[in-house]
Amino acid sequence: MITVQIASKTRETTDICLLELSTPEGGVLPAFSAGAHIDLQLPGGIVRQYSLCNSPAENHRYQIAVLRDPDSRGGSAAIHSQLKEGDKVSISEPRNLFPLEHGANKYLLIAGGIGITPILCMAERLHHLNKAFELHYCTRTPEETAFRQRIQDSSFGDNVYFHHSRHADGKRMDADAVLTTAETGTHLYICGPNQFMNSVLKIARKHGWPESRLHREYFAAEEISHESDTAFEILIASSGAVIEIPADRTVLEVLLEHDIDLPFACEEGVCGTCATRLLEGEPDHRDVFMTPEEHAANEEIAVCCSRARSKRLVLDI
Q1: pTM higher than 0.85 for the full model?
Q2: Is 97 a member of any domain?
Q3: pLDDT by residue (tens digit) across 29-75?
Q4: Do 294 and 229 touch, CB atoms closer than 8 A?
Q5: Can you give the residue range of the structural domain that contains 199?
Q6: CA distances from residue 47 to 72, 188, 268, 307, 312 in whole angstroms, order as listed
Q7: What are the two backbone dihedrals, phi and then psi, of residue 203, each rounded to the nearest 5 degrees?
C-alpha cells in the first residue's frame, strides 16, 4: 500500500466529489494506464475501488471522483462525510482490468453517470495518441454531469456528445443509431450503472458486434438470489486438502478461516483481485469482471462470490 495525502477535495456536482491524491512529499507516483483503478482504504477497514480520471501522462497526482450512493455500504458515505483535505490515506498501486486495445481502428466511448471516470481518462489518452474516437456521455441533467466544463474546454471537446434524459432541451442517447453507424473495426468501451450498460451491450450484440470488440467495467455486481445455493467442496491442489463450503458461506470466507491467504478487495466480483486458477470442476460464475468467453473457458474463478455447479472444484492453490 502507498500512503498519499488528500491534496484537494472539491465538488463536481451535488452528489459527486473529486479527490486529488498526492504523496505527502510531493514525489512521483507509480505510472498508470487509461482505465486503471486504485484500492482506497477507508475508515473502519473498508476497501473500495475507484477509477483514475486524470491523464495517464501525469505522475504527480491521482484523481478519483466518488458518487454519494444512497445505498452506500460505508464507502462513498465515508468519503463524502469523513475525509477532508490534508488527510492521509492508504491506496494500492494502480491496476488495470479495463485496458484500451491500442490496435483498434476507432473507439466508441460511452459513459453513464459516474461511469465517466475511466472513460474520461481514455478520451484524454486517445487524444494524446491522435486516435479516432467519439464519446457519448449520458446523464439526467447538465447539473448532474461531472467534468462537463473540463470536457467542453478540452481540445477533444468536439468529439463528445452529451445526452440528458431529464432536461427540457435534452434527450436520451439513441443507442441503435450510435451502434449501427460505427465504422468497421471500432471497439466499444462502456462504463456506468449495470442496467444502462446491459441495455447498450444487448443492442450492440443485436447489431452483430463481436464480444472481442465489447469492453465494459462494472462498479457493482448484479443482485443474485441465494435461495438455491448448496454446499460443495474445494480441493487444494498443492496439499490435497478437501474443504467444505457451506451453502451460506463464500469460498473466500472459508479459505481465509483455514489460513489460506488469498488477495481480495471488493468481495462482490467486480475487481478481479481474488481470481484463482481453476483446474477441475464446473463453476457457477457470478462475477462481472470476466468476459463471457473467459467464463466459458472456466480457467479462473472469483472466489469472493462464485460457487460450484459440480460437487467439487479443484483450485490451483
Answers
A1: no
A2: no
A3: 999 999 999 999 988 888 888 999 999 999 999 999 999 987 666 68
A4: no
A5: 106-217
A6: 13, 29, 12, 23, 31
A7: -65, -40
